[in-house]
Design goal:
By secondary structure, the protein is of the alpha+beta class. It has 11 helices and 12 strands. Helix 2 crosses helix 3 and helix 3 crosses helix 5. The two termini are about 25 Å apart.
C-alpha cells in the first residue's frame, strides 16, 4: 500500500484502540543499500536508496508522562514511563520507540506521554532497515506533538535515531539506515561520505531502472549479534594493524588504500579479507556513483554484482539462500546486477532491472527458489522513494 493508505490504516486502528481521533502521524521508509556494504561504520562511502515501503506511527499526546504503544508486529503492546524508558526483552520492538524518546529527552525536547499505533509494510529482519524506519517515523511523530529545533537539522535527526539504536537497543550500526530514511528522494539514490557527512542525490531513473527486493525469509537480528559485532570488531582490529605497521595515519579502514591492502604481509588472513572487502567496496561506491551520473546502468549493475561476490568471498556475510537469489537474478535477461542488501546472514537480495523484465524475473526467482529450498520467496517490487515526513491531523 502507499504511505497515505498506511497512515489511514494506522489512524483507524488508533481510533479502535484508544477511542478518539489521533493528532499526528510520522511516516518513514525502509531502504536498500545499493553499494556500501559495511562501509558506514568504517567511515567510508555508501549508496543507499529509500524504498516505497514504510512504517507509520499515528497517535496523540497525553498529559501524563506515560506512553502506550500498540503495533501490528504480532499482538504487540507496550506501556512505559516516557520520562525514564527501560528496555523490555518481552517487547523488543518497543525498544526502538523508547530509544528515540530517550534521545529526544537528552537533546532537550520537552515531552509528556503519548498514545500511538505503529503499522508497517517494511519486512522485519530482512535487511531493508525496518528498525531505522520505526525510529525515524517515531521521531517525526513525536516532534510534531512536541516541537524541537532538531527537526530543522535533518542530519542531526538521523544521528539521533542512530544513537537510539546504538545506545538503547544495543545494535552497533552505522548511519546508513537512518540517513536513508530521513533523506530519501523519489527517483534518486543517495551518496553519503560517512566521515564528512557530505551527501548528494544521484539519479536512479524509474523509467530505466526498477528495484526488486527478494526476501529469502532467513531472518537476521543485528542487535543480537548475528556476526555484525564480530565483523565490526575485525574491521577495527585491521585498521589498528595498518596504523601500526604502515607508518600511515590510519584512523579507520577508510584510510587504507588498495595498494596498502594488496601488500600487507603479516596481517592475519581473516582480517585481510575483511579489510579487502571494505577498501574495495569504497572504490565500488565511487565507481557506481560515476556510472549512475553518466547514465551507464550496465556498469552500475556490474558494481552491484561485484559487491555481492566480495561480500560472499571476503566479508563472508551472505548465506546460501541469498546467494541463490543473486545467482538466479544475475542470469536473467534485463537484470543490470544483484547483491545482498543490509547486514547480511540472511535477509534480502536487491536486484536492479529493466522495468519490463519484472514479470519474467519474478517468475524465475519464484520457481528457482522453490526448486532449491522447497519454500517460497517474497518479492517486493519498489523504486527509489521519498524520505520521512509528518502529518498533523486537523
Amino acid at each position: 500500500m502507499d504511505r497515505n493508505e498506511l497512515i489511514e490504516q494506522a489512524r483507524q486502528l488508533f481510533i479502535a484502540r484508544f477511542g478518539h481521533e489521533p493528532q499526528a502521524a510520522g511516516v518513514a521508509p525502509g531502504r536498500v543499500e545499493l553499494l556500501g556494504n559495511h562501509t558506514d561504520y568504517n567511515e567510508g562511502f555508501v549508496l543507499p536508496s529509500a524504498i516505497d515501503r514504510c512504517v507509520a506511527v499515528v497517535g496523540s499526546a497525553r498529559e501524563i508522562a506515560q506512553a502506550r504503544v500498540a503495533t501490528t508486529y504480532g499482538d504487540g503492546f507496550a506501556s512505559f514511563d516516557a520520562a525514564d524508558p527501560k528496555p523490555d526483552p518481552e517487547a523488543k520492538w518497543a525498544d526502538y520507540v523508547k530509544g528515540v524518546v530517550q534521545e529526544l529527552t537528552r537533546v532537550g525536547a520537552t515531552m509528556d506521554g503519548f498514545d500511538a499505533v505503529v503499522v508497517s509494510d517494511v519486512p522485519v529482519g530482512a535487511g531493508v532497515s525496518s528498525s531505522a524506519a520505526l525510529e525515524v517515523a517515531t521521531a517525526r511523530f513525536l516532534l510534531t506533538l512536541y516541537p524541537h529545533p532538531i527537526l530543522a537539522d535533518k542530519m542531526g535527526l538521523a544521528k539521533l535515531c542512530q544513537r537510539a539504536e546504538n545506545d538503547f537497543v544495543g545494535a552497533p550500526t552505522g548511519l546508513l539506515d537512518q540517513f536513508s530514511s530521513v533523506f530519501g528522494q523519489a527517483g534518486q539514490a543517495l551518496f553519503l561520505d560517512c566521515r564528512t557527512l557530505d551527501h548528494r542525490a544521484i539519479p536512479l531513473p524509474a523509467d530505466r531502472a526498477h528495484i526488486l527486493i527478494a526476501d529469502s525469509g532467513v531472518k537476521h537480528a543485528l542487535a543480537a549479534g548475528g556476526g555484525y559485532r564480530e565483523r565490526r570488531a575485525q574491521c577495527e582490529e585491521a585498521a589498528r594493524w595498518f596504523a601500526q605497521h604502515t607508518g600511515q595515519p590510519v584512523k579507520s579502514l577508510r584510510d587504507v588504500t588498495e595498494a596498502m591492502v594488496d601488500d600487507a604481509p603479516g596481517l592475519d588472513a581473516t582480517l585481510h579479507k575483511r579489510a579487502h572487502h571494505v577498501v574495495y567496496e569504497n572504490v565500488r561506491v565511487q565507481m557506481g556513483v560515476a556510472a549512475l551520473e553518466s547514465g551507464n546502468l550496465a556498469a552500475f549493475g556490474e558494481m552491484l554484482s561485484n559487491s555481492h561476490e566480495s561480500c560472499r568471498t571476503f566479508f563472508e556475510n551472505s548465506c546460501p539462500e541469498v546467494d541463490a537469489l543473486v545467482e538466479i537474478a544475475q542470469a536473467h535477461p534485463g537484470v543490470y546486477g544483484a547483491k545482498l542488501t543490509g547486514g547480511g546472514w540472511g535477509g534480502c537480495a536487491v536486484i536492479l532491472h529493466e522495468p519490463q523484465a519484472l514479470e519474467s524475473l519474478s517468475r524465475a526467482l519464484a520457481e528457482g527458489y522453490r526448486e532449491r529450498f522447497d519454500r517460497d520467496v517474497t518479492l517486493l517490487p519498489t523504486v527509489a522513494a521519498q524520505g520521512a515526513e509528518a502529518v498533523h491531523f486537523e
